[in-house]
Backbone:
C-alpha cells in the first residue's frame, strides 16, 4: 500500500525539519528526505555556526513543543550594539520592560539535535536520510520522488528546502536575482575575560562587519561569544592561512579590546557570501522555503528567521485550506502563501543588501554620514522601535505560530 502523505519535504535541515514538525502539530503528514545522515549533521565540529533566534522564531519553537529542550541551551540577547568601526555614534537597541529579550543565541548543532529528537517521536513524519532524489514528478493530482535507494515517495505538495543550491528550484525553472558579494565569513567562538552581559555587537568596517554574539558561559565559568568576521574575498586566503594566535589578535584589534583577553575555543570555518532572491516561490504543487527561496548576507542575522517565517505562513495557509476540504497542493493556497511572504521577504532582503552596501563605502566622509544617521536613530524613539520590532521578527502580518500563545 502506498504511503501517500500531505507533504514531500526535500531537505531536512533546520527549516525543512521545523516545517515537518510544525505541520505535524496541525495534523499534516510529511515525508522528509535529506541526503545527509543525522549523525553527520550533529557530529561535534561539523557546524560551528550559531544562530540568533528572534522573538517570533522562539514563539514558533515554543508552539511546536521545542522550548523545554532548547531553553537551557540558549543565551538571551539583552541588547544589540551597532557601531561604525567602534567610533562614536553607535546605536544601542534595548527592549522595553514588556518585550523580553531581543532573541536568543543557539548553537546550530543544539537546534538540530532538538529537531531531530522531536521528529523521531512524531508519527506524522516519515524521515528518509542518507538518500538522494534522482527524479521528481509533479502532476495534476500529486507529486512523487524516486530515491537513490529505489523507493518512490508520494504526496500532495512538494516543498523545496534544500538550501541555496536547491535542485528542486532549478528543475522547476524558478529563476532568482543573484549576485556575489565577494565576501567570505569566518566563523568561530572565543572565550573572553569580560562578561558580554547578553550584548550582541555588530561592528561595521568597509571590508565587512565583525559580529560578536553572546553564548552561554562554559561550565568552568569562562565567558563565551560566537564570532562572525566578514572579509573581502581577495583577503580570505591570507586570513585563512593565519596561525590561530594571529587570527585572534586581528579579531581582538577589530573589537577594540571590548572583552579584554580572549582565546579561540572552536575551529575556524568559512563560507562565501552571496545574495539570491527567487521572483516566484511557488509552481504547480511546489512551494519553496528558507534558503531555497531567498539567501542573504548574514549582516543582520535574519536568514534563518526569514525561513522560519516561511514555515509559519505555509503551515497556516495549508491547515486553514485543509480544514475547508482543499488539497494541500491547491493552487489557491500556494498563491496565498506566495502573496503573504512576498512583501516581508523582499523588504528584509532589500534592507540587508542596502546595509551591506552602505557600510561598505570607505572613507571618512561616508563614515561621518553613517554615524550621524545612527545618532539620529539612537535619539528617535519611533525609528528605533521600528528597527527593534524588525529584529525581533514581530512586525507585519504574523501567522499564529509566530505569536505568543
Residues:
Amino acid at each position: 500500500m502506498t504511503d501517500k502523505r500531505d507533504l514531500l519535504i526535500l531537505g531536512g535541515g533546520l527549516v525543512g525539519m521545523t516545517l515537518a514538525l510544525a505541520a505535524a502539530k496541525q495534523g499534516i503528514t510529511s515525508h522528509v528526505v535529506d541526503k545527509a545522515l543525522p549523525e553527520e549533521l550533529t557530529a561535534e565540529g561539523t557546524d560551528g555556526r550559531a544562530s540568533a533566534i528572534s522573538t517570533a522564531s522562539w514563539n514558533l519553537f515554543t508552539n511546536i513543543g521545542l522550548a523545554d529542550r532548547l531553553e537551557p541551551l540558549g543565551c538571551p540577547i539583552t541588547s544589540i550594539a551597532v557601531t561604525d568601526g567602534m567610533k562614536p555614534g553607535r546605536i544601542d537597541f534595548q527592549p522595553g520592560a514588556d518585550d523580553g529579550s531581543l532573541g536568543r543565541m543557539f548553537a546550530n548543532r543544539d537546534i538540530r539535535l532538538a529537531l531531530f529528537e522531536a521528529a523521531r517521536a512524531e508519527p506524522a513524519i516519515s524521515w528518509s536520510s542518507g538518500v538522494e532524489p534522482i527524479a521528481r514528478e509533479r502532476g495534476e493530482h500529486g507529486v512523487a520522488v524516486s530515491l537513490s535507494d529505489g523507493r518512490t515517495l508520494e504526496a500532495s505538495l512538494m516543498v523545496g528546502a534544500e538550501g541555496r543550491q536547491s535542485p528542486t528550484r532549478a528543475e522547476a525553472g524558478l529563476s532568482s536575482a543573484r549576485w556575489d558579494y565577494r565576501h567570505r565569513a569566518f566563523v568561530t567562538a572565543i572565550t573572553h575575560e569580560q562578561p558580554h552581559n547578553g550584548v550582541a555587537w555588530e561592528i561595521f568596517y568597509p571590508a565587512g562587519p565583525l559580529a560578536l554574539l553572546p553564548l552561554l558561559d562554559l561550565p568552568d565559568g569562562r565567558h563565551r561569544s560566537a564570532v562572525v568576521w566578514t572579509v573581502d574575498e581577495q583577503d580570505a586566503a591570507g586570513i585563512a592561512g593565519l596561525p590561530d594566535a594571529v587570527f585572534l589578535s586581528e579579531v581582538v584589534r577589530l573589537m577594540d579590546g571590548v572583552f579584554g583577553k580572549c582565546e579561540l575555543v572552536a575551529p575556524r570555518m568559512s563560507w562565501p557570501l552571496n545574495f539570491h532572491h527567487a521572483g516566484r516561490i511557488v509552481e504547480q504543487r511546489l512551494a519553496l522555503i528558507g534558503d531555497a527561496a531567498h539567501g542573504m548576507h548574514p549582516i543582520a542575522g535574519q536568514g534563518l528567521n526569514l525561513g522560519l517565517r516561511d514555515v509559519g505562513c505555509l503551515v497556516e495557509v495549508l491547515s486553514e485550506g485543509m480544514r475547508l476540504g482543499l488539497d494541500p497542493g491547491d493552487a489557491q493556497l500556494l498563491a496565498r502563501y506566495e502573496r503573504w511572504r512576498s512583501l516581508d521577504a523582499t523588504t528584509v532582503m532589500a534592507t540587508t543588501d542596502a546595509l551591506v552596501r552602505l557600510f561598505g563605502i570607505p572613507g571618512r566622509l561616508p563614515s561621518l554620514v553613517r554615524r550621524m544617521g545612527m545618532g539620529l536613530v539612537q535619539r528617535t524613539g519611533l525609528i528605533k522601535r521600528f528597527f527593534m520590532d524588525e529584529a525581533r521578527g514581530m512586525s507585519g502580518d504574523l501567522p499564529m505560530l509566530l505569536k505568543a500563545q
Notes: The domain at 5-178+274-397 is CATH 3.50.50.60 (FAD/NAD(P)-binding domain). The first strand starts at residue 5 and ends at 10. The chain has two domains: 5-178+274-397, 181-269. The chain has a mean pLDDT of 90.
